[in-house]
Amino acid sequence: MVLQNQTTQRMFxxxxxxxxxxxxxxxxxxxxxxLLYTEEDGKRVITDIPLVEVxxxxxxxxxxxxxxxx
Length: 70
Hints:
Layout: E1 7-14, E2 19-20, E3 25-28, E4 32-40, E5 43-58, H1 64-68
Antiparallel strand pairs: 1-2, 1-5, 3-4, 4-5
């Protein structure tokens, strides 16, 4: 069993808070993220929706004693 310490993950969400898989994220201009496309009925639909980058801290929740040591 491998124990993990806290990890931070970068995620992208739309302005209304919907999570976007990273494969749909592109950057333009000054490195601003935006949603390149979505898939509807198996077809790609090009979009130009601005995204917000957030950092999420993941904490292991297996054993309370072990997590208190982190």
